[in-house]
Amino acid sequence: MRNTLILAALLIPALTFSQNAEQNKVNNTIKAMFDGLSNLSIEQVKNNSTEDLVIFEHGMIWNMDTLSTIINALKDFNPVRVNSFEFLKTEIQGQTAWVAYLNKATVTTNVQKVEYKWLESAVLVKQGNDWKVKMLHSTRLSPKKE
After folding, report:
1. Distance between CA 62 and CA 66 in Å, rounded?
2. In angstroms, rounded to a whole number, what is the distance separating the alpha carbons of residues 12 and 19?
């Protein structure tokens, strides 16, 4: 009995650390995908998403073709986008992860600076050692203009 308690005492911190490490990988995948948007790089978005990515954005349904069109249109404006995230919950069960977070982006063009905010949730799947965004739901919150 004593050996079982000692083993449990040793394993619980290791399992907690492992779970936190995987949660960080999931959260970092979300950040990396949005870095692709900031960099206007559809390849970077693709590297962090599944091929069948679907995004529910403010009542619209987007896929990778939609994102590619949007990114190409934005290149003419040369925007500077800075993202920040507040992760509210990240849960992993097997090869699937669910994450809820607040997303804030400050977008600056030569015309204006706008701060956008969203409440978002995403489903990610594990492919090999990597997490990929499969579905993202985004609810836009009120923007703040300067």
Report:
1. 5
2. 11
What tokens does 14 get?
């290791």
Residue 129 in 3-state DSSP?
Answer: coil
Q: How far is 95 from 92, CA to CA, in rounded Å?
A: 7
Separation of alpha carbons 4 and 7, rounded Å: 5
Q: What is the pTM of this model?
A: 0.83
- Residue range 76-112, pLDDT digits in tens: 888 999 999 999 999 999 999 999 999 999 999 888 8
d(CA 120, CA 108): 22
* Cα gap 27→130, rounded to integer Å: 12
Q: How many residues does the chain have?
A: 146
Eight-state DSSP code of residue 110: S
pLDDT digits (tens, 9 = 90+) for 13-68: 554 445 699 999 999 999 999 999 999 999 999 999 999 999 999 899 999 999 99
Beta bridge partners of 132: 125
**Residue 96, token pair as written in the block:** 């699937």
Cβ-contact 51, 135 below 8 angstroms: no
